[in-house]
Amino acid sequence: MTLELSPGAALIVIDVQNEFDEPRHGRRDNPAAEQKIGELVAAWQRTGRPIVRVAQTESDGGFAAGTPTHAFKPVVADITPDLDLRKEVHSAFHGAPDLNAWLRGRGIDQIVICGIQTNRCCESTARVGCDLGYDVLFALDATYTFDKTAPDGTAFTAEQLSAATAATLHKYFATVVHTADLVGGS
């Protein structure tokens, strides 16, 4: 499947930060995610489409500004995005500067989401983006998450959580795609 992207489709690169390499997060899925994120970034740079780079920022801990763990991973550290955004919550639409205003001001109505974590900040951004009226494409293979345990003690693998996100989002909040679908159509 090759998708037709609008000329102004914005790539939203979420929380690709060193903090997520810390062992305390546990086992992750999709070891190729950074490679896929890099492929998307390269395609957007090649076509001149806008890139939004998002960073989780908190007052202390691993996401504290200025710390090595707050820094972007090498795959996105040296790019010059069209917008650098900081957020203290899950959705990139609730950060600064105002993502919705920035996108609307440029006439952008299609967004592509990639980054970390699949079922948290990436999914939250997709849901809010849909509710705001954007055509949302969710690049599943350019995301990853971690194993989690539910309140009742049930263990879920990262792969199960990613699959649940894909099933929840697809045809309701976004079109779930793979990097090849997007890069082939760039």
Q: How large is the count of helical segments?
A: 6
How would you state the average pLDDT, rounded? Answer: 96
Structural class: alpha/beta
Distance between the termini: 13 Å
Residue stretches low in confidence (pLDDT < 50, at least 5 long) are none
Oligomeric organization of the protein chains: single chain
CATH architecture title: 3-Layer(aba) Sandwich
Count of distinct strands: 8
Over the alpha carbons, how many angstroms does the gyration radius reach? 15 Å
- Helices and strands, in order, run as EHEHEHEHEEEHEH
Under CATH, the topology can be stated as: Rossmann fold
Largest sheet: 6 strands, parallel
Q: Which descriptor suits the 3D outline? A: globular
Return the CATH class: Alpha Beta
Q: What share of residues is helical?
A: 25-40%
**Arrangement of strands in the largest sheet:** 3-2-1-4-5-8
Portion in beta strands:
15-25%
Our count of domains comes out at 1
CATH superfamily: Isochorismatase-like
Provide keyphrases for this structure.
alpha/beta; six-stranded parallel beta sheet; 8 strands; 31% helix; single chain; Rossmann fold; 186 residues; two-stranded antiparallel sheet; 22% strand
What would you say this structure looks like, in words?
This protein has 186 residues and is an alpha/beta fold. It has a single domain (10-183), classed as Isochorismatase-like (Rossmann fold, 3-Layer(aba) Sandwich). 31% of the residues lie in helices and 22% in strands. It contains six helices and eight strands, in the order E-H-E-H-E-H-E-H-E-E-E-H-E-H. The chain has helices at 33-47, 74-77, 99-105, 118-131, 158-169, 179-183, and strands spanning 10-14, 51-56, 83-87, 110-116, 135-144, 148-149, 155-156, 175-177. Helix 4 (118-131) runs parallel beside helix 5. The mean pLDDT is 96.
